[in-house]
Hints:
The protein contains 3 helices and 8 strands. The chain is an alpha+beta fold.
Amino acid sequence: CRYIEALARSSSWDSNFKMVAILTRGGKIISVGYNRQRPVPARNVHAERDAICKGSEGAVLYVCRVKGYRNQTLAMARPCENCIKLIRKSKISKVCYTNEFGVWEEMKIV
């Protein structure tokens, strides 16, 4: 999880927080996604949606939120209900995310 936190902290800032999602299989990164604003149509793309790709079945998804420009503390990154639906549909085997205390938790995928 440390490499995920380092990636989130090192990425460019476009708001007061940064979300990064990393999809792994067999300990190897297969996809990385960030929260970003899509200009047309204007809407946010969640990091989870940005990271999930074809062939994600059985993969592990890590989601991390870093807030603050200087302090860069870890914060709540639990996927929203729409992202959870996509995760289930993609048959991802496990999801880990940072909670409100910056501690990693595992989400049960039912």
